[in-house]
Amino acid sequence: MQGFFDVINAINAVMLSVPVLLALLTVGLIFTIWTRFCQFRSLTHGVGLLTGRWTGKDGAGAISHFQALSAALSATVGLGNIAGVAIAVELGGPGAVFWMWMIGLVGMAVKTTEVTLSMLYRDTSDPTNPHGGTMWVAKRGLPELSARFKTAGPVIGALFTLPLILFALTGGNMFQAWSVSDTTNAYFGVPPWISGVVLAVIVALVILGGIRRIGVIAGTLVPLMCAIYIIAGLFVIFVNREAVPEVFALIFKSAFSPADATGAFVGASFGTAFIFGMKRALFSSEAGLGSAPIAHSAVKTDEPVTEGVVAGLEPFIDTIVVCTITALVILSSGIWQRDAGGTFPAPLELVETTAGWQPTETALPAGDWQDGAQIFTLVTVDGTRTRLYGSVDGDRIDWRGINADSAPVPVDSGLYEDFTGATLTARAFDSGANGLGKWMVTMAVWLFAISTIITWSYYGEQGVIYLLGSRWVVPYRAVWCVLIVVTCLGFIRTSAELDSISTVALGFMLVINLPIMLLLGSRMVSRYRDYFARIRSGEIRPNNG
């Protein structure tokens, strides 16, 4: 199994390498300039479309602008904002936050472009249930460029659906379910399988209603959960307000220089901060992936550009607002560079075993440890500071071992509890008020996970329809719900395994979608400029105009 994940991680190193992430950043900058800063249009005209100040004639579609934005946000505002940001900060350091901001800003232009293209080329053969997304853009849009794409376009669309479905199953479903069961078990001792069954039942009741029910649920759930989470986050930041100036200084400093290793933090280079920050923002906002356009394509409108403008608000809300709140809560609390929870009486000695290098010391040092908790000690491997993991088994430690050509060297005698993903964020919320993380983050994890799972089920479903037809929708939904339960049965011990697999899919979606956007970008910009030209000429007027 380790060999499998070694291959997966090697693919990830290429698919989400610095050049690929820079390509995403470049595409965002291109469309920012090409559209003359469409971010401004999203923050002004986009808000007007949501509030009803601007409306057009009814066109094909099933849901409103607000419901479409809420449905897309329900997929983006989720555990990526809680667990994903925690992983980025824990591994990439404060500098990762800066690169999240960068992707958030240029991501607004990327999202506007890909959603407008999806609206231009969506399938409205059934006006009450349109189909859209990168696969339809490839199938219908690319043949307009050249006759050679008449056959290649549909094939490229099919190739896009494969990583789309894989990411839906792993990142959009299993990662969410695992985080829910892990957090609920950590705080309330609820067996993971119970959380899985409850979650599966809730999801099944929603997805059986299709995009209409998803739109209604998302339109209610997303604003509520965002408001609660932001208010709680601002409270914690206020409590830790004395640390905030230093936190912002660290964010900007660490974005361009190595972040020092202190406490549980292993340190991070500029490259590490860049990769984790941009990857987390990409995962969270989905800018450039071509997934969010699937939800937006169901909107009821006769003006394709309007939904693209509304979609530009997604990365702003998701990354600039919600992700930043999470990052500031974690950084201002100091939990990311916490002290050891216990100390070994003597420096650890490591021996090589079939499972890798393991400490000979298995007695658990004094401390507040929970049976079954994941723990780690810090070692250096070939001069690089890293973690050696284990788990608490009564009064002993069950070490996992670490693979290395030479014996790892212990950094100190400290033993740290591994607050992974959402649990790290929960502990950070506890710094504002004892017990706040327990209730706030557990509730947020459940709400965010439910909203993400139901929307990603629709994304994956649209991929299945494109590949195999609508007759496979019911079996797909059944597999989707079963996977929720299976994920919570204990076969997966850490979210890193799911993260590795889902990241592969994310990378392939990105490298397929970006070239399509560039090839068809002129068509999008032409329609974009025409729409706002009609507004300036008075052809399109506000409702009170």
Task: Write structural notes for this entry.
The chain has 545 residues and is α+β, with helices and mostly antiparallel strands. The protein has 2 domains: 2-338 and 427-537, Amino acid/polyamine transporter I (Up-down Bundle), CATH 1.20.1740; 342-411, no CATH class. The chain has 19 helices and 8 strands. The protein has helices at residues 2-15, 18-34, 38-51, 65-76, 79-92, 95-120, 134-141, 149-188, 192-207, 210-239, 244-254, 270-285, 292-296, 304-311, 313-333, 422-430, 436-468, 473-487, 495-537; strands spanning 342-343, 350-353, 356-359, 374-381, 384-393, 396-399, 409-410, 414-417. The strands form 2 sheets. Strands 1, 4, 5, 6, 7 and 8 form a 6-stranded antiparallel beta sheet that branches. Strand 5 and strand 6 (396-399) form a beta hairpin. Helix 2 packs across helix 6 and helix 16 (422-430) runs antiparallel to helix 17 (436-468). The model has no long low-confidence stretch (mean pLDDT 84).
Main attributes?
single chain, 545 residues, Amino acid/polyamine transporter I, 2 domains, 6-stranded antiparallel beta sheet, two-stranded antiparallel ribbon
Helix and strand arrangement:
Layout: H1 2-15, H2 18-34, H3 38-51, H4 65-76, H5 79-92, H6 95-120, H7 134-141, H8 149-188, H9 192-207, H10 210-239, H11 244-254, H12 270-285, H13 292-296, H14 304-311, H15 313-333, E1 342-343, E2 350-353, E3 356-359, E4 374-381, E5 384-393, E6 396-399, E7 409-410, E8 414-417, H16 422-430, H17 436-468, H18 473-487, H19 495-537
Antiparallel strand pairs: 1-8, 2-3, 4-5, 4-7, 4-8, 5-6
Helix pairs in contact: 1-19, 2-6, 2-19, 3-14, 4-10, 4-15, 4-17, 5-12, 5-15, 5-16, 6-7, 6-11, 6-12, 6-14, 6-15, 6-19, 7-8, 8-9, 8-17, 8-18, 8-19, 9-17, 9-18, 10-15, 10-17, 15-16, 16-17, 17-18
